[in-house]
Design brief:
Elements (H helix, E strand, L loop, with lengths): L1 H27 L15 E4 L2 E4 L4 E7 L2 E6 L5 H10 L7 E2 L4 E4 L5 H38 L4 H34 L2
Antiparallel strand pairs: 1-2, 3-4, 4-6, 5-6
Helix pairs in contact: 1-3, 1-4, 3-4
């Protein structure tokens, strides 16, 4: 029965790690002032009839903190990429110079910073919900084992361990959020 408890704890930890990884990925898409290639991560371009991530049809570079350049691998992709960036509604105004697309990243306004901080909080809350759901699933599995004859003490101990994991991962989310908010609000 101890192997079953270990399995529950391991899978719970794995699930919670997944929530953290997802949160970190979402935080990359929330821009914090300086230009990064990740800002275009959610942009898809029509490439011969299929929606393709922009990074798979062009080189994306950041020559300085306020500029992103997109250099398509095929010249005929310039206009579709430019259009896709405009449609993505990221607040960018792409300029096409015939060879590549230059995006000047505007500095964030105070209002926009607050919106981004609110978005970051929302993502963090979603991650916390994921953590709590993992805890609920683990506790349900532990209760099933208890009904099947596992001792009450072992089950209580396992539930306490799940709660410790939950607390640790919730704190990790709060720490990540604090870092991201500081990054967003820094002028």
């Amino acid at each position: 029965m101890d192997e079953e408890i270990d399995f529950i704890l391991d899978s719970t930890k794995e699930s919670m790690e997944g929530s953290i990884a997802h949160l970190e990925k979402e935080f990359l898409n929330i821009r914090a002032g300086k230009a990064t290639p990740a800002m275009l991560g959610g942009v898809f371009v029509d490439y011969y009839g299929s929606q393709t991530p922009i990074s798979q049809v062009a080189n994306i570079n950041v020559p300085d903190a306020r500029t992103i350049t997109v250099q398509p691998w095929e010249k005929n992709m310039l206009h579709p990429i430019e259009k896709a960036i405009q449609i993505a509604n990221l607040g960018f105004n792409p300029m096409n110079n015939g060879d590549n697309i230059i995006i000047s990243v505007p500095p964030l306004t105070e209002e926009r910073r607050r919106e981004l901080a609110k978005q970051a909080k929302s993502e963090a809350e979603d991650a916390k919900i994921g953590i709590r759901n993992s805890r609920k699933d683990a506790n349900t599995d532990i209760k099933k084992l208890e009904k099947n004859g596992l001792s009450e003490d072992i089950c209580k101990s396992a539930e306490d361990e799940v709660q410790l994991l939950t607390n640790a991962y919730i704190k990790k989310i709060d720490d990540l959020l604090a870092i991201k908010e500081a990054e967003i609000m820094k002028v």
